[in-house]
Specification:
Blueprint lengths: L9 E8 L5 E7 L17 E3 L19 E6 L9 H10 L7 E7 L2 H8 L5 E7 L9 E4 L19 H11 L6 E7 L18 H28 L1
Parallel strand pairs: 4-5, 4-6, 6-8
Antiparallel strand pairs: 1-2, 2-3, 7-8
Family: Belongs to the peptidase A31 family.
Protein name: Hydrogenase maturation protease
Organism: Streptomyces phyllanthi
């Protein structure tokens, strides 16, 4: 995203899908005199964003969302079941979500996730493949102890270690972090990254878990938002 446009108010002009199936939202800026130039407004007056880069100005009642929640899919799609997080995020992104809830696939972009966590969110849900010795495809929710995070250990630019990401986000935010919950799935196929070949695609138990993860996370989101509303 162009940082010069961060925080600007815009109106959605179109929602388009490219040849790879990626959805892009075309917007025009409020107060731009060139927005009504017809075909001429296509150049320099329309800007394209991924859906998760935009936030509605207000909810149905005219009030801004009282609780901002980020659902972040993490993992490597070229390492078999490690791709659970991105696949689950993609499935959830196709569902209608409450105001203030954003879904994004961060893949192995740990630095991006660390900065995004500090963008005013109250809660962050990480979707990840997490081995705990359970039956493959088992879903679980844990709340990591943020006070126990290591003091050092910045994530690599093209790797994803959630512990390092959380530690970096805490340092960048001067110790302040949103609440973090990890929705994990027990993998069947575990890879270290040292294998000579990549493995694209999930095992059957984990693929089935992606389908169960969508209503599971929707229920978790509803519970979080209800608790936040009660505390207001």
């Amino acid at each position: 995203m162009d940082l010069a446009l961060a925080g600007r108010i815009a109106e959605v002009a179109a929602v388009e899908e490219d040849f790879e199936g990626q959805v892009h939202v075309a917007v025009v800026l409020e107060g731009d005199p060139g927005r009504d130039l017809g075909a001429a407004s296509q150049i320099g007056h329309r800007f394209f964003f991924a859906p998760d880069e935009l936030e509605p100005l207000a909810g149905p009642a005219g009030e801004p969302p009282s609780h901002r929640l980020l659902v972040a899919g993490v993992g490597n799609i070229f390492m078999a079941d490690d791709g659970f997080g991105p696949e689950a995020a993609a499935a959830l992104a196709r569902r209608p979500l409450p105001d203030g809830v954003h879904v994004a696939d961060f893949g192995i972009r740990g630095l991006d996730l660390a900065y995004r966590m500090l963008d005013g969110y109250d809660t962050v849900l990480l979707l990840d493949a997490t081995p705990h010795g359970q039956r493959p495809g088992t879903l679980s929710v844990i709340e990591p102890d943020l006070a126990a995070l290591p003091a050092e250990g910045a994530p690599e630019a093209h790797a994803m270690d959630p512990v390092k990401v959380l530690a970096l986000a805490r340092r960048l935010g001067d110790g302040e972090l949103p609440r973090v919950l990890v929705v994990g799935c027990e993998p069947e196929v575990r890879m270290t990254g040292d294998e000579p070949d990549v493995v694209v695609g999930l095992s059957e138990p984990v693929r089935e878990a992606v389908e169960r993860c969508v209503p599971f996370v929707e229920s978790l989101i509803a519970e979080i938002l209800a608790d936040a509303a009660e505390r207001r």
